Amino acid sequence: MTKKNIRVLVAKPGLDGHDRGAKVVSRALRDAGMEVIYTGLHQTPEQIVETALQEDVDVIGLSLLSGAHLTLFQDVMAHLKKRGMEHILVTGGGIIPQEDFDELKKIGITHVFGPGTPINTIVEYIQVSVKK
Amino acid sequence: MKEEIAHIQKERKKWDIQVQDSLQRKSERNRKFTTLSDIPLCRLYTPLDTQDMDYLTDLGFPGTEPYTRGIHPTMYRARLWTMRQFAGFGTAEETNQRYKYLLSHGETGLSVAFDYPTLYGYDTDHPLAKGEFGKCGVAISSLQDMEILMDGIPLDQITTSMTINGPAAILWAMYIATAEKQGIPKDQIGGTIQNDILKEYIAQKSFIFPPTPSMRLIIDTFEYGFKHVPQWNTISISGYHIREAGSTAVQELAFTLADGLAYVRAAMDRGLAIDDFAYRLSFFFNSHNDFFEEIAKFRAARRIWAREMKKLGAQKSRSLWMRFHTQTAGCTLTAQQPENNIVRVALQGLAAVLGGTQSLHTNSMDEALALPSKKAVRIALRTQQIIAEETGVTHTIDPLGGSYYLEWLTNQMEEETYRYFEKIETLGGVIPAIEKGFFQKEIAKSAYLYQKEIDAKQRIVIGVNEHALDEPPAIPLLKIDAKGEKRHLARLTKLRETRHKDKTDKTLVSLQRAAKGNENLMPYILASVHAYATLGEICDVLRNVFGEYKEPIIY
Fold first, then answer.
1. What is the pTM of this model?
2. Which of B475, B240, B485 is nearest to B369 (CA)?
3. Inter-chain residue contact A24 with B117, CB threshold 8 Å
4. Of the candidates B444, B455, B555, which has its C-beta nearest A120's C-beta?
5. Is B455 on the interface with A (CB under 8 A)?
């Protein structure tokens, strides 16, 4: 049996232009042997879910530093549900206060990576969570 | 002089032997001795490292060419820098209250942070604005909001900086119109619009239109500015965001100055005389962790700018001045043990002052978590006041000038900058280099290396990869009042119903016609703003004529 590479969509929902983190994470996941698709900026939740479907990804990493995470992440999750794609692992990252972590967990964002997270923590989390 | 150098060389050799002895007894710490830009550093700097410099040509006196030591002959002895805290959240009313709070605590200038829909030229009720209202700045959808934002603030006495780029001309028009409604003529207001689209494509990413029409709008503001609003800085050429996106200090300096020169050339191509507009160009830099490298960067920036402007034909001394704002580096703030950020900010702020900044924003300790709380921003402002009043660093101009290390490092920054200038030139200039993704790739590479070095503990971040605590941060954070969005939307809806629609539409039609031609658009934008056309409506007109920018995806 050949082992397939993990496919990850790194996505920037909404109008936020802070893409340093998304780019660093994209590169790190690629260096760790994953197949990475980076959406670029200014994606609507609908577009993100559509790309995830087209690219048949195992993971979506949502990056947001504008403070609009509660609304936009929720919209992404709603679209995933609508399209029957709840099997995809969804993580979040950015400027997100601890007190919002629980709220995000409830809607299905399994993990939020805050500022200062070492890259390897993210890589390992994805490798462990996505069993191929 | 030559004799002295020879003597120092001889003594230096003796000292080197002494060092070797010492190293045999105790080796140096096992770490990389480089600046943050990876410039390798020697153990010691002496007159040998600066012997090629000529004091009068390379340093001169403050207020004289090449302005390395400062642009004014008296610097902070005459006037302290402007203490200008970048602020904005929620509704215009809430932000207006925050401005009054900051002014009452000794702030000396305003700096407006807009929310994302405003930065992209959308009204709050646009579908793409969902979830973003007031989150990372204040929402301004029309002149009405701007009037509320500046209510009770005397615009002839206080200067205002606005971080706005894609729709800069429109927000500036709203500010001018607000002043006029306060009875203040436009030639008596002062402030700055960021209006630097090149670094938006490179790093900050709040662009709307493609490069060519964007540059046209910018040159329109230059021209309108020196003719009608002569105390206004019509651009703030910014390295800050380039640095925040992950560049090194050298890249920040080189890319920013390259952008600056591109604007000057574009304005000259339009037929503007350099000495008419150059005195209204201003700059904006980051102040990061590497104390001496930052100071060297500021000093090199002044020297390079003066020399390059002279080459382009500037004759008035004011055209050669690099005046700049500084903000401490947001990307160095840690979410872990946020109180430690107060110390980081103090050191970065001190570097900016030792580098001769004209205005300063000091970050608040909680900004890796949320927008700053009232208390956090007050401490940040107090940090500047302590630097100004207690440390004594303002008593003497360029107090570190003449340090062998600092002068050597200033020269290094300059050399590396010219190396980048050559590369950019080879690529055909700034805009072609953007289109080829050159800057974006350079920055992404630096950002990735920086992160890898932190992960490998080659760079230490206190509280993150050393001396970490296993407890979550416990400081109160600012919450945006959810009711604000409803109030703002109600106001916007009412405005659309009650304004003279015919008049508004007429101004928008005129604007469209002018945009298709090549007239200066500022008078048309001002007319639309006065007729209470909204930001989104005005930008839609321009979007239809100019198109929208789509960036290449690079990581």
1. 0.95
2. B475
3. no
4. B455
5. yes
